[in-house]
Amino acid sequence: MWTEALCRKDSDGDGLTNGQELGDPDCVWKDNTLPSRLNGLSHPGVCDPWDSPDCFSKNLSHPRFHTQEEWLKEMCKPKEFICPGLNTSDIQTANFTVRLGTKVPAKETTYMCQIFDFENMAVADDYHVVAVEPVLDNKYVIHHMVLFGCRDNQVAIAGPFECGMVPSDFCTHVISIWTVGLAGDCFHPQAGITIGTKGFKRIAVQLHWNNPDSRSDWTDSSGMKAYFTNKKRPYEAGFYITGHEHFVLPPLQPSVTFTSTCTSACTSKTIRKPFNITLAWNHMHYAGKQMSVQIVRNKTETFYLSNDIFYSYDSPQVQLYTDNSVQIFPGDEIITKCTFTTARRNRSTFWGEATMDEMCYGFLIYFPKENVQNSVCFTSGPDVSTCDTATYHGCTDLTNFKNPDWLNATSAYQDLVKNCRPFTPCLQECIDTIVSLKRTDPCFKDDLFDFIKTEMLTKTPEGLDLMARFSSCERHVYQTLNTVSPTRA
């Protein structure tokens, strides 16, 4: 915490206070403001000048450091991947890296995937993946990587290809996720993920490249290295994901918070038996300020799986649980809370894939996998749960809006077809129809209908037709709904 005492302290003993080094010489800086001086900043933990008589011995306090370059190399080296049991004779490895020399497109955000045939990479057998670590080639563009297991009907694809947030509809099972600041995944000694003859035979790697300068001369062949063994462990591990999607952050706000609740009813439905959490970490992007994943049991007992009071995308805090003492039960509430700051952003920030978009996800590794029926629990838009879309504030099954047969049979769609034309012109009978729907049908309320349009209606021609007819009179409908007639007044 930046207090006046810390500001006036000289932590590195070079004669300058921490405040002087960081641009706050008068110790008046407040959260979400800029310091009074932005130039000539220095590191409050490094004595300067580095090689001066007073500082040299302080900076080279360890006998193996003889030069500034050696010291910097040690201080700035990446975290070491430590995972017990990887040096035994039964452990094998496989690298799932994109083809050497793959060009990074000259655009800010790219998702690049490659799908591998594991059956051609190892002797036919049944294996457990027990650890995964990153293989980093071009650290200047790599934002995060995901290793996926694919269903048997997915064919291997020899070279890299541009993809979305998943490589394909058949490659959706998360084996491991890496992002900047992590050393790798070391699974619990009692659990692993099956690959080979009785498990995933095709493995996909996804790379998220961030190239904000749109450079055309970058290449990258990063990926993931899997450690596996044919001495299978007692339990199958799984990946559980919580969080909130499809949100918008307004600009110039010091704090914006979204809370996603995986309800007691939801976990009672999707969790068969209690399961053990072995690892938990939070994921937002650079507007992320604070995040937690909290478990509430019986409305009274509360504990945190993760709780980043000061979130930093570049330094994710991983919580390890190795003693089987942390469990999630059917009926527990899982509350994911994300707080963002857009104080320095002049435009709205959207949920999305790009680095300058935002996310709100809690990642959990657990076992036994078979105790969980559905390993994702999100809320979207106006707090619509992916666990239960049967009813939301009186709007029955939201997923029906993706079904063209159901949509064609509804009186709402038939009235819109009868009274509204796509896009233009706006007819009075269309205004009357839409105003009536907004006043009587909960599915057409503003926030919820915006979510339905984005996530449901865009999936079918019938849905797009409904949106086009609706849009023909949107401005007039808004004016009508916000004008109170003398009679109604």
From TrEMBL:
Q: Which Pfam families match?
A: Cu2_monoox_C, Cu2_monooxygen, Temptin_C
Task: Supply one GO molecular-function term.
Answer: dopamine beta-monooxygenase activity
Give the superkingdom in one word: Eukaryota
Question: Start and end of every Temptin Cys/Cys disulfide domain?
Answer: 2-46
Q: What sequence ranges are listed for the domain Copper type II ascorbate-dependent monooxygenase C-terminal?
A: 235-383
Report whether Transferase shows up as a keyword of the record: no
**Which parts of the sequence belong to the Copper type II ascorbate-dependent monooxygenase N-terminal domain?**
102-215
Q: What is this protein called?
A: Tyramine beta-hydroxylase
Question: What is the organism field in this record?
Answer: Biomphalaria pfeifferi (Bloodfluke planorb)
Lineage, highest ranks first: Eukaryota, Metazoa, Spiralia, Lophotrochozoa, Mollusca
